[in-house]
Design a protein that fits this description.
187 residues, transmembrane, membrane, transmembrane helix, disordered N terminus, 7 helices, mainly alpha
Length: 187
């Protein structure tokens, strides 16, 4: 919370500072990572649906020079875990309506992370869900993997963006409860 001098109270530790003095920086770095990942999924969808590439050749931007990235369950799991950690670590800086939207994103990412953990576990054990020939997530039983991951990234990203938008534009009560400097200057 801001003091009369406009200074923020000091918070010890990395997590404390990521939700106070360095919240905006943390959010910007996190957003960059999320957008870069989102761009990979969009590039892959364009390759498949607009350019008509066969699925094995549609590998996004980085998958071209590094094809193992597309097939690595470790890489996909690592990103899902990074997203989950980022959403958890940055959540305390949010107040009011923004916090609600951030928690919506976090809740969806918990499920998305579980799906990637399930895929990784199958890859490591060779025991595939319902006898499928490849690692398969729960929702992948009804939605193809490319479309499913476009969906997952969209439904995690959308409430995250709403949260960031509201966080930068808090109402009076939310601004008073904030412990960071993310809010735009009041008029």
């Amino acid at each position: 919370m801001a003091t009369h001098s406009g200074a923020l109270p000091s918070r010890a530790g990395l997590i404390g500072s990521m939700n106070t003095d360095h919240h905006r920086l943390g959010l910007n770095v996190f957003l960059f990572i999320v957008l870069a990942h989102w761009a990979e999924h969009v590039a892959q969808a364009i390759q498949i649906y607009a350019l008509g590439w066969p699925l094995p050749e549609a590998r996004g931007v980085l998958g071209g020079p590094f094809p193992w990235l597309v097939t690595s369950e470790w890489m996909h799991y690592g990103y899902a875990l990074l997203m989950l950690i980022g959403l958890i670590l940055l959540r305390k800086g949010f107040t009011g309506r923004a916090r609600t939207w951030w928690y919506v994103s976090l809740g969806i990412q918990v499920w998305h992370h579980f799906e990637h953990l399930l895929l990784l576990g199958q890859k490591l054990t060779g025991l595939y869900l319902l006898g499928k020939p490849v690692p398969t997530s729960v929702l992948q039983l009804v939605v193809p993997r490319v479309e499913l991951h476009l969906f997952y990234n969209a439904v995690v990203f959308a409430p995250m963006v709403v949260a960031m938008w509201l966080h930068r534009r808090p109402n009076t009560a939310e601004r008073a409860a904030m412990s960071c400097r993310c809010a735009a200057a009041s008029a």
